[in-house]
Write a structure and sequence with these properties.
By secondary structure, the chain is mostly helical. The protein contains 12 helices and 6 strands. The chain has a two-stranded parallel ribbon. A two-stranded parallel sheet has the order 3-6. A hairpin with a 2-residue loop joins strand 4 (249-251) and strand 5. Residues 1-23 have low confidence and may be disordered.
Length: 309
Protein backbone atom coordinates (compact mmCIF):
# COMPACT_ATOMS: atom_id res chain seq x y z
CA UNK A 1 0.00 0.00 0.00
CA UNK A 2 2.78 2.42 0.87
CA UNK A 3 4.25 2.01 -2.60
CA UNK A 4 1.16 3.78 -3.97
CA UNK A 5 2.58 7.02 -2.58
CA UNK A 6 4.76 7.35 -5.65
CA UNK A 7 1.68 7.29 -7.86
CA UNK A 8 0.14 10.08 -5.80
CA UNK A 9 3.10 12.43 -6.11
CA UNK A 10 1.51 14.22 -9.07
CA UNK A 11 -1.74 14.68 -7.15
CA UNK A 12 0.06 16.27 -4.21
CA UNK A 13 2.03 18.56 -6.50
CA UNK A 14 -1.10 19.56 -8.38
CA UNK A 15 -2.85 20.46 -5.16
CA UNK A 16 0.07 22.69 -4.22
CA UNK A 17 -0.56 24.71 -7.35
CA UNK A 18 -4.35 24.68 -7.36
CA UNK A 19 -5.40 24.99 -3.72
CA UNK A 20 -4.92 28.24 -1.82
CA UNK A 21 -1.98 28.26 0.54
CA UNK A 22 -3.01 28.09 3.75
CA UNK A 23 5.41 16.49 22.72
CA UNK A 24 6.67 12.98 23.12
CA UNK A 25 8.02 13.58 19.69
CA UNK A 26 7.53 17.18 18.82
CA UNK A 27 5.42 19.20 21.22
CA UNK A 28 1.65 19.27 20.92
CA UNK A 29 2.19 22.18 18.52
CA UNK A 30 4.50 20.12 16.32
CA UNK A 31 2.13 17.17 16.04
CA UNK A 32 -0.91 19.34 15.38
CA UNK A 33 1.07 21.30 12.80
CA UNK A 34 2.06 18.15 10.87
CA UNK A 35 -1.52 16.93 10.76
CA UNK A 36 -2.85 20.37 9.84
CA UNK A 37 -0.50 20.53 6.85
CA UNK A 38 -1.50 17.00 5.81
CA UNK A 39 -5.23 17.68 6.14
CA UNK A 40 -4.98 20.70 3.85
CA UNK A 41 -3.20 18.65 1.18
CA UNK A 42 -5.76 15.84 0.95
CA UNK A 43 -7.93 15.58 -2.12
CA UNK A 44 -11.62 16.31 -1.60
CA UNK A 45 -12.41 12.60 -1.79
CA UNK A 46 -9.85 11.60 0.84
CA UNK A 47 -10.82 14.49 3.10
CA UNK A 48 -14.49 13.55 2.87
CA UNK A 49 -13.68 9.97 3.86
CA UNK A 50 -11.57 11.12 6.79
CA UNK A 51 -14.27 13.56 7.91
CA UNK A 52 -16.84 10.74 7.78
CA UNK A 53 -14.70 8.68 10.15
CA UNK A 54 -14.50 11.65 12.53
CA UNK A 55 -18.23 12.43 12.33
CA UNK A 56 -19.25 8.82 12.96
CA UNK A 57 -16.96 8.15 15.90
CA UNK A 58 -18.27 6.81 19.20
CA UNK A 59 -15.31 8.17 21.20
CA UNK A 60 -16.77 10.61 23.75
CA UNK A 61 -15.43 12.82 26.51
CA UNK A 62 -16.97 13.13 29.97
CA UNK A 63 -19.59 15.56 28.64
CA UNK A 64 -20.76 13.24 25.87
CA UNK A 65 -19.10 15.31 23.15
CA UNK A 66 -16.93 13.84 20.42
CA UNK A 67 -13.48 13.16 21.82
CA UNK A 68 -11.72 13.88 18.53
CA UNK A 69 -13.67 16.63 16.71
CA UNK A 70 -10.77 17.42 14.38
CA UNK A 71 -8.03 15.40 12.75
CA UNK A 72 -5.16 17.70 13.71
CA UNK A 73 -5.86 17.62 17.46
CA UNK A 74 -6.69 13.93 17.27
CA UNK A 75 -3.09 13.31 16.23
CA UNK A 76 -2.16 13.85 19.89
CA UNK A 77 -4.09 10.71 20.85
CA UNK A 78 -1.13 8.33 20.96
CA UNK A 79 0.67 10.50 23.50
CA UNK A 80 -2.51 10.60 25.58
CA UNK A 81 -3.46 6.91 25.62
CA UNK A 82 0.17 5.69 25.52
CA UNK A 83 -0.84 2.12 24.72
CA UNK A 84 1.96 1.37 22.22
CA UNK A 85 5.12 2.83 23.80
CA UNK A 86 7.72 1.02 21.68
CA UNK A 87 6.12 2.32 18.48
CA UNK A 88 6.98 5.95 19.21
CA UNK A 89 10.63 5.51 18.24
CA UNK A 90 13.29 3.41 16.55
CA UNK A 91 16.46 2.46 18.46
CA UNK A 92 19.45 1.52 16.34
CA UNK A 93 22.81 0.14 17.54
CA UNK A 94 25.52 2.72 18.09
CA UNK A 95 27.77 1.03 15.55
CA UNK A 96 25.28 1.55 12.72
CA UNK A 97 26.39 4.21 10.27
CA UNK A 98 23.20 4.35 8.22
CA UNK A 99 19.66 3.01 7.88
CA UNK A 100 19.13 1.02 4.68
CA UNK A 101 16.11 -1.21 5.29
CA UNK A 102 12.58 -1.26 6.70
CA UNK A 103 13.23 -3.71 9.54
CA UNK A 104 12.67 -2.79 13.18
CA UNK A 105 15.94 -3.45 15.08
CA UNK A 106 15.82 -6.35 17.51
CA UNK A 107 12.60 -7.74 16.10
CA UNK A 108 10.35 -5.57 18.30
CA UNK A 109 7.66 -3.20 17.12
CA UNK A 110 8.81 0.30 16.22
CA UNK A 111 7.73 3.32 14.19
CA UNK A 112 8.28 1.47 10.92
CA UNK A 113 5.96 -1.40 11.78
CA UNK A 114 3.43 1.02 13.31
CA UNK A 115 3.19 3.11 10.13
CA UNK A 116 2.71 0.03 7.98
CA UNK A 117 0.11 -1.47 10.31
CA UNK A 118 -2.01 1.65 10.70
CA UNK A 119 -1.89 2.49 6.98
CA UNK A 120 -3.35 -0.96 6.38
CA UNK A 121 -5.97 -0.53 9.10
CA UNK A 122 -7.04 2.85 7.76
CA UNK A 123 -7.53 1.37 4.31
CA UNK A 124 -9.44 -1.70 5.52
CA UNK A 125 -13.10 -0.80 5.03
CA UNK A 126 -14.18 -4.03 6.74
CA UNK A 127 -13.01 -2.69 10.10
CA UNK A 128 -15.33 -0.73 12.43
CA UNK A 129 -15.37 3.05 12.07
CA UNK A 130 -13.59 3.70 15.38
CA UNK A 131 -10.76 1.31 14.58
CA UNK A 132 -10.12 3.04 11.27
CA UNK A 133 -10.30 6.47 12.91
CA UNK A 134 -7.86 5.38 15.62
CA UNK A 135 -5.55 4.14 12.86
CA UNK A 136 -5.78 7.50 11.04
CA UNK A 137 -4.94 9.43 14.22
CA UNK A 138 -2.11 7.04 15.06
CA UNK A 139 -0.72 7.29 11.54
CA UNK A 140 -0.61 11.07 11.87
CA UNK A 141 1.29 10.72 15.12
CA UNK A 142 3.76 8.09 13.92
CA UNK A 143 4.70 10.02 10.79
CA UNK A 144 5.31 13.06 12.96
CA UNK A 145 7.46 10.97 15.30
CA UNK A 146 9.66 9.45 12.60
CA UNK A 147 10.58 12.93 11.37
CA UNK A 148 11.75 14.00 14.85
CA UNK A 149 15.45 13.06 14.73
CA UNK A 150 15.69 12.21 18.43
CA UNK A 151 13.08 9.47 17.92
CA UNK A 152 15.41 7.61 15.56
CA UNK A 153 18.38 7.22 17.85
CA UNK A 154 19.90 5.08 20.63
CA UNK A 155 18.20 3.34 23.53
CA UNK A 156 20.81 3.78 26.27
CA UNK A 157 20.37 7.57 26.47
CA UNK A 158 16.66 7.39 25.58
CA UNK A 159 16.99 9.51 22.46
CA UNK A 160 18.78 12.39 24.17
CA UNK A 161 16.71 12.42 27.36
CA UNK A 162 19.92 11.55 29.21
CA UNK A 163 21.91 14.35 27.57
CA UNK A 164 21.59 17.36 29.85
CA UNK A 165 21.19 20.88 28.57
CA UNK A 166 22.05 24.29 29.98
CA UNK A 167 21.70 27.72 28.46
CA UNK A 168 18.88 28.80 26.16
CA UNK A 169 15.44 27.11 26.19
CA UNK A 170 13.47 25.94 29.18
CA UNK A 171 14.06 22.32 28.19
CA UNK A 172 16.15 20.23 30.58
CA UNK A 173 17.67 17.86 28.00
CA UNK A 174 18.57 17.61 24.33
CA UNK A 175 15.49 15.56 23.43
CA UNK A 176 13.22 18.27 24.81
CA UNK A 177 15.09 20.94 22.86
CA UNK A 178 14.06 19.19 19.64
CA UNK A 179 10.58 18.31 20.90
CA UNK A 180 9.51 21.76 21.92
CA UNK A 181 12.06 24.57 22.07
CA UNK A 182 13.06 24.53 18.40
CA UNK A 183 9.41 24.22 17.36
CA UNK A 184 8.24 27.14 19.46
CA UNK A 185 11.23 29.47 19.04
CA UNK A 186 12.07 28.85 15.40
CA UNK A 187 8.82 27.70 13.77
CA UNK A 188 5.43 28.70 15.14
CA UNK A 189 6.33 32.09 16.59
CA UNK A 190 8.69 33.41 13.93
CA UNK A 191 6.31 35.25 11.57
CA UNK A 192 3.78 36.69 13.99
CA UNK A 193 1.66 39.72 13.07
CA UNK A 194 1.35 42.66 15.42
CA UNK A 195 -1.75 41.24 17.15
CA UNK A 196 -0.25 37.81 17.83
CA UNK A 197 -0.68 38.25 21.58
CA UNK A 198 -4.45 38.11 21.00
CA UNK A 199 -4.27 34.68 19.36
CA UNK A 200 -5.84 31.57 20.83
CA UNK A 201 -3.37 28.85 21.87
CA UNK A 202 -3.09 27.05 18.54
CA UNK A 203 -3.60 30.00 16.16
CA UNK A 204 0.16 30.63 15.74
CA UNK A 205 0.48 27.01 14.65
CA UNK A 206 -2.21 27.46 11.98
CA UNK A 207 -0.46 30.61 10.73
CA UNK A 208 2.82 28.66 10.60
CA UNK A 209 1.07 26.04 8.45
CA UNK A 210 0.08 28.86 6.07
CA UNK A 211 3.62 29.95 5.31
CA UNK A 212 5.16 26.47 5.46
CA UNK A 213 2.75 25.30 2.75
CA UNK A 214 3.36 28.47 0.74
CA UNK A 215 7.15 27.99 1.01
CA UNK A 216 7.07 24.31 -0.02
CA UNK A 217 8.61 23.89 -3.49
CA UNK A 218 6.65 21.56 -5.83
CA UNK A 219 9.76 19.74 -7.06
CA UNK A 220 10.84 19.15 -3.47
CA UNK A 221 7.38 17.84 -2.57
CA UNK A 222 7.61 15.39 -5.45
CA UNK A 223 10.83 14.04 -4.00
CA UNK A 224 9.49 13.88 -0.44
CA UNK A 225 6.45 11.78 -1.24
CA UNK A 226 8.33 9.44 -3.59
CA UNK A 227 10.09 7.81 -0.64
CA UNK A 228 9.37 5.08 1.90
CA UNK A 229 9.14 5.29 5.71
CA UNK A 230 12.53 3.63 6.21
CA UNK A 231 14.04 6.46 4.16
CA UNK A 232 12.40 8.99 6.48
CA UNK A 233 14.02 7.14 9.38
CA UNK A 234 17.35 7.23 7.54
CA UNK A 235 17.08 11.03 7.23
CA UNK A 236 16.48 11.40 10.97
CA UNK A 237 19.29 8.99 11.81
CA UNK A 238 21.71 10.88 9.58
CA UNK A 239 20.70 14.09 11.35
CA UNK A 240 21.38 12.89 14.89
CA UNK A 241 24.83 11.60 13.90
CA UNK A 242 25.97 15.05 12.76
CA UNK A 243 28.58 16.43 15.14
CA UNK A 244 26.89 19.84 15.29
CA UNK A 245 23.75 18.31 16.84
CA UNK A 246 25.83 17.29 19.90
CA UNK A 247 23.87 14.09 20.34
CA UNK A 248 26.72 11.61 19.94
CA UNK A 249 30.44 11.61 19.23
CA UNK A 250 31.80 9.69 16.26
CA UNK A 251 34.67 7.60 17.56
CA UNK A 252 36.31 4.44 16.30
CA UNK A 253 33.52 2.28 14.84
CA UNK A 254 30.49 3.90 16.46
CA UNK A 255 28.76 7.08 17.60
CA UNK A 256 29.64 7.20 21.29
CA UNK A 257 27.64 8.73 24.11
CA UNK A 258 30.66 10.73 25.28
CA UNK A 259 34.41 10.88 24.82
CA UNK A 260 34.85 8.15 27.44
CA UNK A 261 31.60 6.15 27.25
CA UNK A 262 30.50 4.21 24.20
CA UNK A 263 27.00 3.93 25.75
CA UNK A 264 25.42 5.78 28.64
CA UNK A 265 25.77 3.65 31.76
CA UNK A 266 22.85 5.09 33.73
CA UNK A 267 25.08 6.94 36.20
CA UNK A 268 23.88 10.53 36.49
CA UNK A 269 27.42 11.62 37.35
CA UNK A 270 28.43 10.56 33.85
CA UNK A 271 25.70 12.45 32.02
CA UNK A 272 26.95 14.75 29.31
CA UNK A 273 25.81 18.39 29.15
CA UNK A 274 25.19 20.39 25.98
CA UNK A 275 25.34 24.18 26.05
CA UNK A 276 22.37 25.64 24.19
CA UNK A 277 22.68 29.06 22.54
CA UNK A 278 20.97 31.13 19.87
CA UNK A 279 23.44 29.91 17.25
CA UNK A 280 22.28 26.32 17.80
CA UNK A 281 18.63 27.35 17.46
CA UNK A 282 19.41 29.35 14.33
CA UNK A 283 21.28 26.43 12.78
CA UNK A 284 18.65 23.78 13.42
CA UNK A 285 15.48 25.85 13.19
CA UNK A 286 15.43 25.40 9.39
CA UNK A 287 15.99 21.66 9.85
CA UNK A 288 12.91 21.43 12.07
CA UNK A 289 10.85 23.47 9.60
CA UNK A 290 11.90 21.06 6.85
CA UNK A 291 11.16 17.94 8.92
CA UNK A 292 7.70 19.15 9.94
CA UNK A 293 6.83 20.15 6.38
CA UNK A 294 8.07 16.86 4.96
CA UNK A 295 6.06 14.97 7.58
CA UNK A 296 2.89 16.82 6.63
CA UNK A 297 3.15 16.14 2.91
CA UNK A 298 4.23 12.54 3.40
CA UNK A 299 1.34 11.97 5.80
CA UNK A 300 -1.08 13.34 3.20
CA UNK A 301 0.31 11.01 0.53
CA UNK A 302 0.17 8.00 2.87
CA UNK A 303 -3.44 8.72 3.79
CA UNK A 304 -4.39 9.25 0.15
CA UNK A 305 -3.00 5.82 -0.63
CA UNK A 306 -4.84 4.23 2.29
CA UNK A 307 -8.17 5.92 1.54
CA UNK A 308 -8.13 5.41 -2.21
CA UNK A 309 -10.72 3.01 -3.64
Amino acid sequence: MLNQMRDLALIIMALTWVLPSQAQAWSKFGHVLVCEIAYRQLTDDARDKLNALIENQSFEDEHGDQLYPSFNHGCLREDQVRQRPSEHYINYPRDWSRVDNAQCPGGRDCLLSAIELDAERLGDTSLPNDERLAAALALGHWIGDIHQPMHVSFSDDRGGNSVNKRGRCGASNLHAVWDRCLVERRVIFVREPANADEYAEFTPMYRAADWMIEDAVPDAIMGWVATEPWEWAAESFDQIRQAEVHYCIKKEDACWYSETLRSYDGDEDNQRTVVMDEAYLDRFGPVVISRLTQAGYRLAATMEAALSD
